[in-house]
Amino acid sequence: MKRFLSILLLSSLCTHLAQAEPLIVGNFSQGQLTQWEEKSFAGHTQYALVERDRRRVLKAHSDKAASGLFKKVEIDLTKTPYLNWSWRIDNLIEGNNEHEKAGDDYPARLYIVISGGLLFWNTRALNYVWSSHQPVESHWPNAFTDNAQMVAVRSGSGELGKWLTEKRNVREDLKRLFGEEITRIDAIAIMSDSDNTCQSTRAYFGDIYFSAK
Predict the structure, then answer these.
(1) What is the spatial distance between Cα 139 and Cα 151, in angstroms, rounded to a whole number?
(2) Has residue 8 been placed in a domain?
(3) What's the predicted TM-score (pTM) here?
(4) With 80 as the cut, is the pLDDT of residue 72 above it?
């Protein structure tokens, strides 16, 4: 009986440890851009792995351009609902209204994508953005489609040039903003864009991973 209980406890511990392992999506610190693809909307944002502040990171420089890097990866949000990343921006977008199409530019953003399958018009996206003007934790529909929701994780110039670490419960954010329980996502994307305002931005992204807590 004692042996059975020991095996049961060990099995439970191993399962717990396995679930606690982070799921790395962007391993930039190791110089990896495997399976990341570019999607251009207007010109090309320049993405490159660089050394910055004694660490290897992904640099994004947009000059009147809008293209993103995306990676197809299925994430089970019942096991790893937390998205973790770090980022830094050097400048904001000036004078734009992010609720309008003409002002829909952001120095840095991360997309969470839920595929609509063959019904591509049902594809939805959650955008975590560094807003130039909207209050932190505010949210609004994307200026081009109601199928994308924007969340201001950071805002303004107070923390320009600083590395900031973020953690978001994606499952809870999706339920709050789309009004339904979504337990799986299909892709993640990074973008810095300045095509609508014809400005220039520069941002940096650290490693991206999902975790159980």
Answers:
(1) 4
(2) no
(3) 0.88
(4) yes
